[in-house]
# Entry
Amino acid sequence: MKKLNRILILAYILLDFAIAQCLGDLNSNYHIEETDLNIFSNYLLFNNDTILNNADFDYNNSLDIIDLTLIADAISNGIEWCEFDNVDLSVEWEEQENFSYYDDQELESILNNEINNLPDIRGLIVIHRGKVVGEKYYNNSNISQNFNIWSVTKSYISSLVGQAIDMGYISDEGIMLNEIFVDNNYTNQVSIEHLLTMSSGWPENWSYMNTNNVLNTLLSTPLINTPGSTFFYNNAACHINSHIINTMTNINPKEFAMEYLFPHLGIDNPNWTSDADGISNGSYGLYLTLREMVKLGQLYLQNGKSEELQVLSPEWIHKATSTQINPGGGGYGYLWWLMENGYLALGLGGQIIAVFPNQQLVIGAHSYTYSNNNHFNSLMDLIFSMIFPIFDISSANRGETLSSKSIYEGNKNTFSFIKLGSYQVEQKAK
# Structure
C-alpha cells in the first residue's frame, strides 16, 4: 500500500505538469470528468480498441488500474479543466511530433489517397492544438506558393473592420453609410452590418471593376431589397467594406493589415489586387500561401489572440461567428459561413478555412480556381466525413465508425446553397 501511495504521489505531481496536454481528457471536451472515468473503466473491463494513449498517467507505456486511480484522483481534487496555450501566430507553424492521441496513419492515408485523387487540389493542411499534424501538396504545388484565396479574402476584410472598430476608428457596425460617404436614398438605409451580412439590398454590380469612380458607382446603384431583410451574396457591396476602412482610417486596407493584422499572423507583404481607385479588393484578390491563409482560422480559434497578444477582440470574434442572418437553410455571421460544428471561410473553386473550436482543429485547402462543383463537393465531404472524425474522439468513444461518420447530416442545410466568387455552387448532402 505504501508503495502504491508513493506511486500515486509521484504520478499526481506528473499530473500537474501533464494537464496542459489534456492528459486524462479522454472524450476531448477539455474537461476531466466522470465520463472520462467511465470511458477508461470500460476500456479496462472490455479491452476495447479505443485510442487512450492520453490516459497513461504514470508514463509506463501501459494502461492499468493505477492510471484509472489517478483519473479518479484528478476528479476528486477538482481538476476538471484542460486548457491549451495560444500559439504565437507571428512565427512559423510548429509541427506535431507525438501522434499518440489520434490515428495519424489514417490521416496520412486520407492525404495520400482520397485527397490525392482530387484532380483540382493544390494543397491541404490540418492544424490541431495549434500545430501542423498533416500537410500535403499536389499537382506540382508546394509549400511556398501563394494563390488567390478568392472569397476567403472577405473573412480577412471582416477582421479588418473588426479591428477598426476595436481601435475606435469606427464607432460600431451599426453606423449608416450616409455617415461615412455621400448621403443619398440608398446610403441612408444601409449600415456596415448589412454589408457584413450580405443583406445590403444592393444587387450585384460588376461594372465597378471597370470604372475609375468605383465608390460612386457602388453607392448610386438602386436597391432591390430592403436592407437587412434578405441574404443576397454580393461581391460589389462587400467591396464597400474596403472603402469604409480606407475612409475611416485614412489607410488603404492592405496597408492597414500590414500594420495591425499581418505581422501578428506571420504574413509578409502579400500581393493584394486593387480596384481602379487603388483600394484593395474587399471581396477577393488576396494572395497567400496555404500556411498563411489558415492563420486567420487559428486566430479566431484562439479568441482573437496570438499567444498573449489580443489582436482582435473576443466580442468581434463572437459576433462574426454567430448567426446574424439565415442565407436559406444555414447560418451566416460577419462574412463567415456557419455550421453546426464551427465556421468556414470559403473561396471560389475550393479555397477553404474550416474551424472546429471544440476539437481545437483548423483545416485549410487550396484548389485550382476554376475547379467544378464536383471537386468542391468531394473536398468538403472528405473534410467533414473523414478528416474531422479522426479528431472527434468523443464520437469514437461512443462507438461510432469514424470512416462513415458524416458531418453533412448536421450541416447539409448550411451547404445547400453557397455562392463563391461570381459563381453559384449547389452543395448537396451525401
Remarks:
- Confidence is low (pLDDT under 50) at residues 5-21, 394-430.
- The longest helix spans residues 373-391.
